[in-house]
Amino acid sequence: QVDLVESGGGLVQPGGSLRLSCAASGADFVFTSGGWYRQAPGMQRASVADILRNGITTYQDSVKGRFTISRDGARNTLYLEMNDLRPDDTAVYYCNWRTLSGGSYWGLGTQVTVDS
């Protein structure tokens, strides 16, 4: 079992920045890959950014150049740095953590609202 605690969401004006964090703990948290997903009202949950254990990253086209995913192995934490935020980035953001044993775990989500 892996417990994930997300933080860093909030209300920000267009063009602003936020940094999301996802701290993992538990008995099965050996990281192999992970990512951030988001779900806007009435929409399906979609991948925003993904990172492998070796550091290779991939991004949804709409966030390339604005968002950066990273991982701190010593702190068992995933991050999502979000810059130049736009109203259509408004969503609940979820952390996903995949483990060596084949597990896939989700956080409860953190709300990001971009509005003037």
Description:
With 116 residues, the protein is mainly beta. Helices cover 0% and strands 57% of the residues. It has strands at 2-7, 10-12, 18-26, 31-39, 46-52, 57-59, 67-72, 77-82, 91-99, 104-106, 110-114. Strands 2, 4, 5, 6, 9, 10 and 11 form a 7-stranded mixed beta sheet that branches. The protein has a 4-stranded antiparallel beta sheet with strand order 1-3-8-7, with no helix packed on it. It is globular. The model has no long low-confidence stretch (mean pLDDT 94).
Short descriptors:
four-stranded antiparallel sheet, 116 residues, mainly beta, seven-stranded mixed sheet, single chain, globular
